[in-house]
Structures are given as structure tokens and as C-alpha cells.
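User: Structure please.
Assistant: Input sequence and predicted structure:
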Amino acid sequence: MKSYFLKLYQFNRWANVRVLATRNSGASFAAAVDYVKVSALYTTPQVTTATLYGGFGFNLPANATITNLSTEVKWFISTPVASALLGVQPYTGAGSTPVGTELTVSPAPTTATVSTLVQANPGLVPADLNDANFKVRVRVTR
């Protein structure tokens, strides 16, 4: 039995294909391979990308009582992905302390969509909303 290696180029990669042939007797012969097809099904680990936004310009009086915090975001993804998730959440402490529960949308919209997170009595004081302290985290997970 003889082994022959064919070199194939497909999808920007070279691949070796091993062809085995046995000749017991008789004349020489030629063998041809029309194509070799390989499929791979795979998954990738979830990837999350997040950005903190700040500088909203709040200048509340020190004696103000914050009774409602409304966070509005207009977002979309460019390609439909069933597992994609968008999230938004306010943070205080220069982006280190989450306020309430994150608003998530899944599947993520593919056209510009407005989502609003409303938090009644969020337990904040005016200093929490000043420019240095208040941030909003926007994330996408796929």
C-alpha cells in the first residue's frame, strides 16, 4: 500500500490530504480527487465589551432629594445575533458602585431603539450625581 499526500489550498489555508492506494497487479493507474469538504461547528466563549460614560453636567443643590433617576439609551447592533445582549446601568463612586439593577435587552435590536431605565427613590444624594462621581455603563455581550 502506498500513501500519497495532496496539497490543497482552500479558504486561505493549505491542507494535506492523505490518499491510500493498493495495487496488487496490473497496469499503472491514476487517481483523482475532485474535492475534499470539511465542516466545523464551533462555539466561542461569551465576550463582553463595556464603556463608562460620564460628564452629564449635573449641578444639584446640596439639599435636594432625588426621587427618580431615569436613564435613556438609544442603541442597536449592526448584525442580528440571537445571543447578543445590551445592558445599561448607572454607577456612582466614579463608576465603581452600581445603582439599582441593570436594564438588559436580548436579543439586541438591529435598528436604533430607545430603552429607558427608571428607578424610583434610587437612594442617591446630590453629590452622587456630580460629574466626577456619576457614570453610566453601557455593555454588549455576545
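The beta strands are 2-10, 13-21, 48-54, 68-75, 85-92, 97-98, 103-105, 113-120, 135-141.
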